[in-house]
Amino acid sequence: MTPSPETAASAAEGQTPQPGMEAGPKKKLRVAAVGDLHVGETSHRAYRDLFDRVHEDADVLCLCGDLVNFGKTVEVENLLEDLRACRIPMVGVLGNHEHECGQPQEVIRMLSEAGVKMLTGEAYEIDGVGFAGGKGFVGGFGRYMLSSFGEASIKTFVNEAVEDANLIENSIRTLRTERSVVLLHYAPVVDTVIGEPPEIHAFLGSSRLAEVVDRYENVKLVLHGHAHRGAPEGRTARGVPVYNVALPVLRTMGDTPYRVFEV
């Protein structure tokens, strides 16, 4: 597979790195990304080919959440049967589906032990490119974003969105790389949820995530999943490219079950 013609670095050419940042190498890093595999209890070898071949096209694989259906141990075990075929570094975040059984930390443990660098407030550097992020949360976009007002339950809901955004910002802040990629599950911009019913847009992501991204000039690319019927790409207010790599979206674009970017 040939990398996508758009390159994440081109979106922010000419920008001055933040003070104290170390200049990264000139060589581009090929980043493959996919989310929303939704491996189930009866899924066996469903994605073996994906994990076995991705090294031919990319240097790093990003997994954008909802990798399993309900967060059950048996589902994760089925995923790991395929995932162990991957020969390149993997970075990932959880989605909402991994929380359904109430054991997200166990899912994180299993994936981490299999070699996936899970982003839950941490950040990693691979060949001069930083990787940060987290699941994110919902709340809506722009002027329609839910505010912390009224009932205590609403305030609790909004507070979780704020705390998730803060966690993601903390992970970005730790990076000193000239180029960084942010992984999310929920969408940071409304552009990439267009195609979903407007009534559920508020449950597909939040502008708070984009606000965090736009505070850091070293962020060159944002990847997310979740919106199965959304659009493949958009941009933050600062112009950072955002890509929806949910597998159902990728399937509308061709047969390759991941998308590749150069950073």
From TrEMBL:
Chain segments carrying region Disordered: 1-26
Gene3D superfamilies linked: 3.60.21.10
Domain Calcineurin-like phosphoesterase: 29-229
Bias (Polar residues) ranges: 1-18
Keyword Nucleus: no
InterPro entries associated with the record: Calcineurin-like_PHP (IPR004843), Metallo-depent_PP-like (IPR029052), Metallophosphoesterase_sf (IPR051158), UCP008292 (IPR016538)
GO molecular function, one term: metal ion binding
KW Cell membrane (keyword) present: no
Coiled coil: none
One Gene Ontology cellular component annotation held by this UniProt entry: membrane
Signal peptide region: none
GO term, biological process aspect, one: lipid A biosynthetic process
Keywords for the protein's UniProt record, in alphabetical order: Hydrolase, Metal-binding
Protein name: Calcineurin-like phosphoesterase domain-containing protein
